[in-house]
Design goal:
By secondary structure, the protein is an alpha/beta fold. It has nine helices and seven strands; from the N terminus they run αααβααβααββαββαβ. The longest helix is centred in the first third of the chain and has 17 residues.
Length: 236
């Protein structure tokens, strides 16, 4: 996204924040357009998530799948299951450019995970191919990365591009997604040593895995994965 495009989003977000004081879910009064207490209770926290892939109900420090085949990143920080209120708000953010929903989710995510942050050099949003970015006009991963980077006091690094367009990943399984994404990302400048990849939803982890492998080959040494929500395990 161009700087002008992001500035337009930022201006719109500022106006929205100044003149809207409604919970983005129930539309009742809420200071700063945050989720009200009732709607916050409708979010479904992941129970006992695996620290590497956020699979719920692991009852161990690391789930069996990650013990057998560790992911390309060092830890995953995910707040909710993609269901109910979280699913509604994520879809409002992603498909309707609803910045009130985006801010509400991002601020709640930071409240739960910001204090756990290890020293990082930058946040890396999942990039869109330029044609898709031009068509959609909005990259929710970049918006989240910029919001969280402001909270963290670090930079957003955009030296990673999606050089090859791909078919939609919805409906593809883990293996198909990995095959589709192989080699589609390119690093355009030396990357930071310690980063977190930022996205809205973790499904199979194929996108994050390909991004992490690309960053490691270019010299990144520590990679975290930050996402708002995780789809049910049966969804991919």
């Amino acid at each position: 996204m161009s700087d002008n495009g992001f500035n337009a989003l930022s201006s719109r977000s500022l106006v929205d924040l100044m003149f809207t004081s409604l919970c983005p879910l129930c539309e009742q009064h809420s200071n700063g357009s945050q989720l009200c207490a009732v709607c916050t209770s409708w979010l479904s926290p992941l129970p006992d998530p695996c620290p590497l892939c956020a699979a719920p109900n692991t009852f161990t420090q690391v789930c069996g799948r990650c013990q057998q085949s560790p992911p390309s990143w060092h830890c995953a920080k995910v707040s909710w299951a993609l269901e109910g209120a979280a699913r509604f708000l994520v879809h409002r953010m992603k498909y309707h450019q609803d910045f009130a929903s985006a801010r509400a989710l991002a601020s709640h995510w930071w409240h739960h995970h910001g204090h756990q942050r290890l020293p990082l050099d930058a946040l890396v949003p999942v990039p869109l191919h330029r044609h898709k970015a031009r068509h959609r006009g909005f990259n929710q991963s970049e918006w989240l990365a910029r919001y969280l980077a402001t909270s963290a006091g670090i930079d957003v690094w955009t030296g990673l591009i999606k050089a090859i367009p791909t078919q939609p990943l919805e409906g593809l399984n883990r293996t198909q997604r990995r095959q589709t994404l192989r080699g589609v990302f390119t690093v355009t400048q030396p990357p930071p040593k310690r980063v977190a990849i930022v996205d809205d939803v973790l499904t199979t982890g194929a996108t994050a895995a390909e991004l992490a492998r690309t960053l490691k080959r270019a010299g990144t040494q520590h990679i975290e994965l930050w996402t708002l929500a995780r789809t049910p395990l049966g969804d991919g």
